[in-house]
Model the fold of this input.
Amino acid sequence: MSATADHAEERTNPAARLGFEPGQVVQEIGYDDDVDQELREAIEAVIGQELVDEDYDDVADAVLLWFRDDDGDLTDALVDAIGLIDEGGTVWLLTPKTGREGYIEPSDINEAAQTAGLSQSKTISVGKDWSGSRLVTPKAAKSGKR
Done:
């Protein structure tokens, strides 16, 4: 595939934009009827296997955390998610977009991430109804700047 084709895929395939790679173990938390099935399927296609669920008892490369305003305490959910990933792993926090039921203010996301010891590196649209915030452990954030 050419560099141009790679670039085009990143714009059209949300899983590619999220940075998932073949062979990664991605744990999904907060699955419900409202999640973006196309995004889930695109991630599974990129990693070459199914997402593992909340009962997975090994370390994952990344966590996909679907979270809505009424799901409880976001900081607690992020702290729990950190415990499930390898050092330097990524938590993709997926929240409803502005105006959608369950929307969470960006300032609340940033505060919860900082309290949990994570750094927010970017936020992107990952579907019609969902935004994704890439949260990384401090070690991952530092290694990305070298």
About this structure: Confidence is low (pLDDT under 50) at residues 1-8, 140-146. Residues 61 and 86 are 6 Å apart (CA to CA). The longest helix spans residues 37-47.
